[in-house]
Design brief:
Layout lengths: L2 E10 L2 E11 L4 E6 L5 H8 L7 E6 L2 E2 L8 E4 L11 H11 L4 H14 L15 H13 L5 E5 L7 H16 L3 E5 L3 H7 L2 E6 L2 E7 H8 L2 E7 L12 E6 L3 E6 L2 H11 L5 E7 L3 H9 L5
């Protein structure tokens, strides 16, 4: 059950939104899909769902094209919310579940389980418009997963949620992954992708600029982060050989450096200058990699 995109291109008149994108998304895994606004992520999702036809290339799931006959296997949480405000939660979910081929009784049973899990059983008979944004998001999530899809596409699932609800939704997503759902997940929050995804793709102007296993991407980036907490000025390090970027913090400095040898040289340089509370060499963050690859166009 592998999702494959081969040389997928989507043009809208003279504008190319997705340009020759080839990806393989492994089964039962969470795959991170990143890009600045307008990079082509949502267009790609809509092509995977069959809502848009690709101008060129092919998209297959387990070797077969995705279309209406496979819609019961797929779940989608769009970035823009799409619930009917006047409907009660119960009616809304049953209606959407029936469209996915579920029986009403099964849908209600699943809905009760999910509302308990999200600690909001009392919402079953409330109208959608009576709920806060965060709670509407939970209902929208339930709508996307109630029919137990094999492939789940989450477009910015955590946007607008407070930290407690983010954790709750994150746990639900990870549990689905453990149960064998393949999840494609887009987010502006790099730390969520870093925490949850093994493979990822960074899209820039419709083209993949980074693609592969997170560990390999970090290794190939080459640069590392050095965090120093000291009770003397570290300003002189901005001109130190091998230092790419410096940021002064209240406790000292955070540096991006070209490698471990630079850290060694810096340590020799600062020992004896005063008290050093922390000297830690860390892997580059996904944010560092993203900014370097996508640069100024990232809002």
């Amino acid at each position: 059950m592998v999702l494959k995109l081969k040389h997928v291109t989507k043009r809208f008149g003279p504008f190319t939104a997705v340009d020759d994108l080839s990806l393989t998304i492994p089964e039962k895994e969470m795959f991170g899909f990143l890009g600045a606004n307008g990079a082509g992520k949502t267009t790609t999702f809509r092509m995977i769902l069959g809502l848009l036809d690709a101008s060129a290339g092919s998209i297959t799931w387990d070797g077969n094209p995705l279309n209406y006959s496979t819609s019961h296997l797929v779940g989608y949480l769009p970035e823009e919310r799409g619930l009917y405000p006047k409907l009660k939660v119960r009616e809304q979910i049953v209606y959407l579940a029936r469209l996915r081929g579920m029986q009403k009784a099964d849908a209600l049973k699943e809905l009760k389980i999910w509302l308990e899990k999200f600690k909001v059983p009392e919402y079953e008979n409330k109208r959608v418009e009576e709920l806060s944004k965060g709670n509407q998001q939970k209902i929208q999530f339930i709508a996307a997963v109630i029919h137990k899809p094999k492939l789940l596409i989450l477009d910015e699932p955590f946007s607008g949620l407070d930290p407690v609800n983010v954790e709750m939704l994150k746990e639900a997503v990870l549990a689905l992954k453990e149960n064998g759902t393949t999840i494609v997940f887009s987010s502006h929050q790099m730390h969520h992708v870093e925490e949850m995804c093994e493979h990822l793709c960074i899209l820039h102007k419709g083209r993949p600029v980074v693609y592969g296993a997170l560990k390999e991407i970090k290794r190939a980036f080459g640069k590392k982060n050095l965090i120093i907490h000291a009770d003397f000025s570290l300003d002189f390090l901005k001109d130190f050989p091998g230092v790419v970027k410096t940021k002064t913090t209240t406790e000292g400095a955070e540096l991006q450096i070209e490698g471990e040898r630079v850290a060694e040289s810096i340590l020799k340089e600062i020992v004896g200058k005063g008290f050093i509370r922390k000297f830690a060499l860390e892997e580059p963050s996904l944010n560092d990699i993203f900014i370097e690859k996508v640069g100024d166009s990232y809002e």
